[in-house]
Amino acid sequence: MAGPGTGYPMECSQTVKRSTGTLYGVGVGPGDPELITLKALRILKSVPVVAWPAPLSGESLARSIAAPHMRDGQVEIPIRMPIEAGVFPSGEVYDEAAQKIAHHLEAERDVAAICEGDPFFYGSFMYLFGRLADRFPIEVIPGITSLTAAAAVLGHPLAARNDTLAVVPAPLEEGVLERRIADCDACVIIKIGRHLRKLRRIIDRLGLLNNAHYVEYATMDQQRTSPLADIMIDSASYFSIVLIHKRGDAWQ
Questions:
Q1: Which of 103, 113, 218, 245 can pair with 186 through a Cys bridge, CB separation 3.0 to 4.6 Å?
Q2: What is the pTM for the complete model shown?
């Protein structure tokens, strides 16, 4: 088509953007396969490609949660990585995973990258988001977090009224960890693992041992709950949480 009075072809006023697949960051919840959202269920059943995080060897918890909802024939991208402190998250692993996912997105195939809990609450998906969000459409599907799952199975509400609720990682240095616990009305301590003995020592020193409740593998088959005062081991599962409310019960 010629431009008015020029005899030359008219340039398009807009550049046509090539379509791509969409990357979905799907939170699959704390462990029970029934504790996923309807939206997560729809996406898991519809996408042609599913990416999932896993340790260097062994089963992927995220995939085991999602497995009952996946369909035959889906392409799977395992993202295996070291999970030891000081190594995770591995930049090289996520760089490689992002490249594999980008290959499918460029071919207009949608990808669901799944993770336990919620994608943006200490979720592994955020490291893919940071590498791909400027190139592809991304939708984040929230999931039930380990915090709310732990409160539910323990029967201990997290907070009420004007309480300040803190989420505190146990690997923090002991003095910092103690200050964080002391400065809030209620707290959830995560990533306990080998820090259980240190954590118990701090909570006892603060006079909160009788207010502390322990749960591991919340909502899963191997779930275990107990007052922290009754836990005598020195280390715990990575999938363990301690809840503390300084009033004892949030409703008091």
A1: 245
A2: 0.87
